[in-house]
Design goal:
Elements lengths: L1 E7 L2 E6 L10 E9 L2 H9 L12 E9 L11 E5 L7 E4 L8 E3 L6 H4 L2 H14 L6 E5 L3 H12 L4 E6 L2 H10 L3 E4 L5 H8 L7 E4 L4 H10 L4 H7 L23 E4 L12 H6 L2 E4 L5 H9 L9 E6 L3 H8 L7 E5 L1
Parallel strand pairs: 8-9, 8-11, 9-10, 11-12, 12-13, 14-15
Antiparallel strand pairs: 1-2, 3-4, 3-6, 3-15, 4-5, 5-7
């Protein structure tokens, strides 16, 4: 079979490799669509020898072509979304398949491309759940790539009344508006921190999810998150008394500030002034992988729509061109590889 082997920074080579072996508890999946993850893009740009000779790709869907002797709940011909790795290839072997745990049947009306977004969508769903939002919270999502899109839609699915998205890429801004975010900030044209202060009458956002992963987004999250009792005491009447205020005047000097959800993978080291986190009593919560089943449930119910996020598709032989396209936020949201 053909597979794209990673040999080092910016060096993919499509080569003939051995077909995957079928394990007794496993299955062989013919890959139909595999998304380019931001983490793969980081490896492509910076990866060293420890990543070489690997087949990357973990956001994928496909068709079951064979199952092991011990597998009874998966059949050849089934359309599935998969949690696994090595999917920049024609086939992937899953050593142990567990239906509705690492392999999920696709609804008939869901495309392979949308099915391949289940894994990144699960990251956003996990972030929203870990944030434990309330209906009247003001939530800000920084960055509207695939992870950001899944995150803000997950907050809306959980009933949050105001979800604000900040982004610089033209295509991502267009898609975010079309999908119905409450407020969309073009961060290339206005200061997101100033805009959030305006929207919240100086109080700040209850939850900020950093899905951009840059020095500027981390500092913006720190600066725009709501302060707790001590911060409000320091600010005095500047907070809670302006027109449009939600009247969160301090009642307890030890009350918590807002939450910063750390969702993005940072490609580079960042300089960061963390003192406001301490003074505000803000909480920083790390978020990584989520449960694919949680994402699939919301996607099946129509509460998260990822089909419009798939902006470009490339054959496996053009994987280098596909990665170059994924690096253009002004033109793209999600690029799919179609082996």
């Amino acid at each position: 079979m053909k597979a794209a082997i990673f040999h080092g920074p910016r060096d993919f080579r499509v080569e003939e490799v051995s077909d995957p072996a079928l394990e007794p508890d496993g299955a062989i999946i013919r890959v139909k669509a595999c998304g380019i993850c931001g983490s793969d893009l980081h490896i492509y740009n910076l990866g060293g020898t420890e990543q070489s000779q690997r087949v990357l790709g973990h956001e994928f869907s496909g068709e079951v072509v064979d199952v092991g002797a011990n597998v009874t709940d998966l059949k050849p011909g089934m359309r599935v979304a998969v949690g696994g790795a090595g999917a920049y290839a024609e086939y992937v072997g899953i050593p142990r398949v567990m239906l509705n745990l690492n392999v999920f049947p696709l609804p008939e009306d869901m495309s392979y491309e949308a099915g391949a977004t289940t894994e990144p969508t699960s990251v956003g769903v996990n972030a929203a759940k870990r944030a434990e939002p309330k209906e009247d919270d003001i939530v800000v999502v920084l960055g509207a790539g695939m992870i950001g899109q899944g995150t803000w839609q997950a907050f809306k699915a959980m009933g949050v009344s105001r979800v604000i998205v900040s982004e610089i890429g033209k295509k991502r801004l267009e898609v975010t508006k079309a999908l119905g975010a409450d407020i969309v900030i073009n961060a290339a044209e206005e200061d997101p921190v100033e805009r959030i202060n305006e929207i919240t009458s100086g109080e700040g956002a209850d939850i900020v999810a950093d899905c951009a992963g840059s020095a500027s987004s981390l500092q913006q999250a720190t600066d725009m998150v709501r302060g707790g009792g001590y911060w409000q005491l320091m600010m005095g009447t500047q907070i809670g008394s302006q027109p449009g205020s939600r009247n969160r005047a301090f009642t307890d000097i030890l009350s918590d500030g807002g939450k910063i959800m750390m969702v993005a993978v940072y490609e580079n080291m960042v300089e960061w002034q963390p003192t406001p986190v301490m003074i505000k009593g803000a909480r920083m919560i790390g978020c990584s992988a989520g449960r694919l089943g949680d994402a699939m449930e919301l996607m099946r119910a129509g509460k998260i729509n990822t089909q419009p996020l798939i902006t470009h598709q490339f054959p496996l032989d053009e994987i280098t061109e596909a990665f170059a396209m994924q690096a253009r936020p002004e033109e793209v949201v999600k690029v799919m590889i179609r082996p």
